[in-house]
Amino acid sequence: MALLRRPLLVLLLVVTHQFLQLWIVFGSVNEEGQKQEEFFEELLLKPLPDRKLLTHFHFQSSAPPSSNGRHHHLFPKAISQLVQKFRVKEMELSFTQGRWNYESWGGFDSIPSSNAKPPGVELWAVFDVPQHLIDALWKNLTHTLSGLFCASINFLESSTAYSAPEWSFPPASGNLRYGTLPREAVCTENLTPWLKLLPCRDKAGISMLLDRPSIYRGFYHSQRLHLTSTGSGSEGLDPGIILEQTLTVVLLPNSQRASLARASEKHIQPSWSLRSIFGKEVSGKCVLAENSNVYLLLDRGLVAELKQLHKEDEESAEKVLASENYWTNPIFELSAKPDRIFIEESSLLSKNSSILYKFEVEKYSESEPFDLGLTWKIPVVWLCQQAPLHASRFLMGSGNERGAIAISLKSTQSCEGFTGANFDDERCELRVDVFQVVPWYVKVYFHSLQVFVDQQPKAVSDIIEKIHVSPSKDKVSPGVMELVLKLPCSVSSAALTIEFDKGFLHIDEYPPDANQGFDIPSAIVSFPNFHASMVFLENDSLNKSPLLSKFQEKSPVMSYTEVLLVPLTTPDFSMPYNVITITCTVFALYFGSLLNALRRRVAEEERFLKDKAAKKSGRLPLLLSKLSAKLRGRHSEPPHSTPGSSSLVNSKLVFKVILVAGLAVCWQYYFS
Amino acid sequence: MAEISEAHDSDSSKLQDSGSEAPQRPESEPDFDPKITRKTKPGLKRLFLTFSVLFSFLLGFPFLWKSVEIYRSPLPFREIDSLSTQLRSDNLLFPLHFHALFVGFDSEPDSLRRSILSAIARLASQNPKCSNNYTLSVTVDLDSRCLRSPTSSPHSSTYQCGSITAADFVQNDDVAVDERLASVFGGKTKEYSVVVVKGGNERAVVGKHRHAWMVVGDGSEVEVAAAKVAELLVKVFINGGREEGSIRNEFMPVGADGKIVLSFNLLNADPRDWAYDRDFEKIDDTLLAPMIEALGPVANISVESQVLYHTPKASFSYWNQKLESYVFSTKDLPFFVNSNEWHLDTSIAAGGRSKILQFAVYVPSAKECPLLLQLLNGEISKTNGFISPMWGGVVVWNPQGCLKDSEFKSGAKNIIPIQDLENMFEVFIGQFRQLFGFKSVNVYAGASGDWNLLPSERGFTEWELDVLSRQHTCFNLHSCATTLGSLSRLVQSLPRMIIMDEIGKQVKFSLEAANLALSNASSRVYESSAASSSKASSLAEDAFFHPSIMSVSYYSFEHCFAVYSPFFLPVSMHVLLAALKELRRYKQEKAKNLAWKAKANSAS
User: Fold this and answer.
1) Given an 8 Å threshold on Cβ–Cβ distance, is A81 in contact with B53?
2) Which of A286, A388, A272 is nearest to A332 (CA)?
3) H/E element holding B517?
4) How far apart are CA A342 and CA A322, in angstroms?
5) Residues 143 to 162 of A: which have CB under 8 A from any B CB?
6) How confident is the model at residue A418 (pLDDT cuts 50, 70, 90)?
7) Residue A424: which residues within 8 A CB-CB, separation 6 or more?
């Protein structure tokens, strides 16, 4: 029975499929009651320990699947066309200026692990097409994005500029392409097209705060665009797309206090308000947004410190922090009353939980704009949560011939609590993934990979569990190294070194200002056993906030290392011409002397010499006579020089000089 | 020194060619002066040597020239020239055939034909670029028999005598008459027919197909009818019913690759007041799809749509108390489109040289609602919209609630009512027709009377599409010829420009397509000739804008000179000087020898 039914079912499927396609052809997909396109805007503010302030703008637009791709209500047309044309499954593009300071700004939260990006441009994309088509699509995609965002992303087109990581890059998949441009300068011309993708641009809502001078004055800013297309296009429907745009800025608020002279106030964190940092206020939400919220996040370390300050009434600290009027307390004061307070659900890893204040922008209007201010009353010192290991990378060696890259991982003291990731204490291991791309002109010798744990050299096979290497091909592809390290939990420092030779480039391949050096893109160090996630207790409204649901997602902790600058031997760029000139001169000399030798008449010259010798009695008497003539002040007359011949010589010389001068004049005249 | 002199002494006898023997026996010949005479013939060895070096040097120059030569694919310059001369010399003729049928008239078809032809000749202003080659046949239907002129015309024979009677035109339903005529004449023939019927209430209608009919009163003269028919044929069927000189005739809003992207934008000036959306899918299916299908042979059209917010217009409007609305006058129209805030992006889906036509619906904000466009004569525009040639069109749509702002909820998502939307898109189709140069009204007002133009539900009627196809073919062929001509001139003027093989291929294919279009046009296959002409023009553009032409187009003579002069300058000095010296010496020695010989002769 079942056997009988199956072909029928298949047939039915085929028929409906065809019918569907037919439907599509006539463009008559018209399904009512579909999910609507949505837009959310959110802003997260977080005080950082080193007197700075993190502002994180988060905009999310989503287009449901099976909507007609030719018309969008809110979703940007350019992005949906891009997804359809290049069959992009997932893509992330980031423009970053500055370096995320993992030590003082933290490395364990969701924000650094997904928003701290390497300087310059980073682009990765996953395509929904067979392997052999990916490279062509990638090249077209880079060109399109470069037009869309006014950036030189098209330099990622060349196969030496991008790579295909196998498994170490987090959204690992065979259809992934990854490329970075560390030297791309990021400025307003990249921000404006990014803003154009928002339905309200910077005309209304939270994005009104995006004041260009304030943003670009910051210590770090990273503008990111992440899109995921859900649902496959195989059913003939257009895929649903979720477009997530974030802008992460680290700013130093100008202290509002007039009297900084007092010594005690120097240690107080600077107070700030939205007006003081951006010079603008939010006058109401973008009417197209589903919701529009501003959050203030006090992270775990800060909350622990605050509790410490409340020591006197410890049992009530928790209550005080969550109580409704906590926003004015002895330590700090908020200028607006939060609409809601979330407390993070205590995780296994730490006893402390962070606190989130929510402000709804909807309630404010043009007449009563929203301005959030935070005033500290007493000095507070705390630390942000660190990733288990702090990664940094540097170059070793000197000279223009060879060198070595070292990646050093240092244990952060705060990570003791996190070792709970592996429960068995004897065999406790810390897994670290390293992904490193090197350009082809840095010729890495993979056999020279050395591993040091706590300054002791270790056998590579003991520490490295898995390794994938694709060696670079000259002028074709970069070298890619993917490693999985298993370090003991008690490790305090670990280092990887690998040696390389510096290659030579063709004279055409040098970029302008080659003496500046060549960049090696950041390595990515990720800790797959650690997940940055914050789960907030009050769940009822979470599904409406993409930012909070983003926090809940278990994203692996990632960090980027520094960009390295390798000086390569740069040629003297006029060298080819010099070489040509000197070679030609040598050839000409050789040629000339050969010709002279060939037409030399040895016998005749001998005869002339003899003649002269016969006429002159000797060299010494001649010299003497000349000398005596000079002494007497009279012109010595050589016995055989006739005046006629000397005048002839003179006229010849004059003629020659005139000829050369005439040639020079002609030359000048002709070429000017 | 001593050794050399010894050597010289030992083998001096061997050195026959040099003048060294002369001074060896000065005693034997007392009057012998080695400076002016010489006994032996001067030798040729060194002269030969230096000259062979010089000649091999000179022979090397062509090879050097060849080696620094750059690759140039041969382009068919002569074919390009012949194409443009062919187009210039009025060889691009579109043959048209007209058929005039007179029902109920009792007159000679020959005289009718003559009068119509003379009227056509008077009216037809020859388009300087594309001309038409028309033939005319006239049939007079007298119920039982037909009188035809010319009697042996292959075209008029398709008409069956008596199949159209005056009774067909009694009813006032123009669409039904149109269908009836289409069934009689058959939709497939490419001839244009005009039926003139006597009796009934007077009217003149141009149908959706290639037919027109005219009902005249009983007493009217046949000559008047003939003049009107001639005007119809020339002004409507040939020229598409457009006024001379309104928009230049060859102006077509079609991209160089034969594609048009219609980008429909709904602009909400201020979403804080209200934000509107529209049901685009429905409109796309009902109104746009048939039009796109109909225009298929002329252009490949794709449609996209978006809604934009916070897009105020760039100029101010003024409150008019009498009209109780804000008025935007025509003279400010150039400042209506706000290119800073209206980010009507170019399409990613469209290829590089597609033409994008923007059609924008502007929903004014509460501060300027209702907004009306005022014509130059003070009247209010009926469509409340305007076009900008080669850019697109704008329609201002005032929401219902803006007069009585009572039930309006701020920021609520509203949908434009479907009735309004349909009206709006009809205006857009009218604007689209205007961008193509057609009229948006359904009446053609000629000198000898008005013609009603029956509108097609596809936006463009068959005869209009014919006009477009002809015009498109003509425009494309001319632009193809111009582009190829410029390319050939450019290539010939820059002898050191690299020309890739691909460019040569593109030029060749473009020429082939252009010739195909020419032959198709002369055999009245308008659609395929339009298609191949657009292919020809797009290939010509491809060749002209090939990236390799743009980039390293040539490397300079100065560069060449700088590289080769360090070698050739010193070496050529040596070689030339050596050759000159040897030549001079040879002449000198020869003269000495001759002098000696003369002396010897005189002495002996």
Assistant:
1) no
2) A272
3) helix B501-522
4) 8
5) 144, 148
6) very low
7) none
Residue B405 Rama label (left phi>0; alpha psi -120 to 50; beta): beta
Q: Is A612 on the interface with B (CB under 8 A)?
A: no
Residue matched to tokens 């425009």: B475
Q: How far apart are CA B416 and CA B455, in angstroms?
A: 26
Tokens of A611: 């003649």
Amino acid (one-letter) located at A318: E
β-strand A71-72 against A88-97: which pairing, if any?
unpaired
Tens digits of residue pLDDT in B209-242: 887 888 777 666 777 777 788 878 877 777 776 6
The Cα B54–Cα B583 span in angstroms is: 12
Q: Radius of gyration (Cα) for chain A, nearest Å?
A: 38
Largest CA distance in chain B: 142
Per-residue pLDDT tens for B76-126? Answer: 888 888 888 887 776 566 777 788 887 777 777 777 888 888 887 777 665
Q: Write the pLDDT tens digit of every residue in A294-347.
A: 999 888 888 888 877 776 554 455 555 555 556 567 778 888 888 888 888 765
Largest separation between any pair of C-alpha atoms in chain A:
141
Q: Do A77 and B345 touch (CB under 8 A)?
A: yes
For residue A235, the model assigns a pLDDT of 55
Cβ partners under 8 Å of residue A233, min gap 6? A84, A87, A128, A239
Nearest CB to A585 within list B19, B285, B566: B566
CA–CA distance from B321 to each of B313, B324, B406 (Å)? 22, 5, 21
Cite the DSSP H helix spans in A87-211: 102-105, 110-115, 131-148, 188-196
Which residue has 């003139």 as its token pair? B196
∠ CA A107-A110-A114, rounded to 5°: 85
Which amino acid does the sequence have at B378? Answer: G
Residues 6+ apart with CB under 8 A from B205: B174, B177, B178, B212, B213, B214, B451, B452, B453, B454
Interface check for A85 against chain B (CB to CB < 8 A): the answer is yes
**Which of B309, B408, B556 has the highest number of chain A CBs within 10 A, making it the mutation to test binding with A?**
B309
Q: What pLDDT sits at residue B32?
A: 65
pLDDT of residue A540: 56
Residue (of B125, B127, B119, B126) closest to B136 by Cα position: B119
Give the Cα separation of A578 and A305 in Å (integer).
69
Question: Closest-CA residue in chain A for B559?
Answer: A577
Token pair for B505: 């291929």
Q: Chain A: nearest CA to B348, how far in angstroms?
A: 6
Chain B contact for A24, CB < 8 A?
A: no
The CB density around residue B550, as the number of other CB atoms within 10 Å, is: 9
* A78 closest CB neighbour out of B5, B285, B348: B348
Question: Tens of pLDDT along B459-488?
Answer: 788 888 888 888 888 888 888 888 899 988
* A484, A169 Cβ separation under 8 angstroms: no
| Residue among A70, A596, A603 minimizing CB distance to B8 | A603
Chain A's closest residue to B10, CA to CA, is A603
Q: Sheet of A272-273: strands edge to edge?
A: A272-273, A373-376, A332-334
> For residue A659, what is the enclosing H or E element?
helix A643-671
Check: CB of residue B488 under 8 Å from CB of residue B62.
no
A29 touches chain B (CB under 8 A): yes
Q: Do residues B12 and B20 lie in contact, with contact meaning Cβ atoms separated by under 8 Å?
A: yes
Strand partners for A63: A241
Residues of chain B with pLDDT under 70: 1-34, 90-93, 124-131, 143-144, 151-160, 162, 166, 170-172, 186-189, 200, 218-220, 241-251, 351, 403-413, 550-557
- Across the interface, whether the CB atoms of B285 and A27 are under 8 A apart is answered yes
All residues of chain A having their beta carbon less than 8 Å from the beta carbon of residue B592 are none
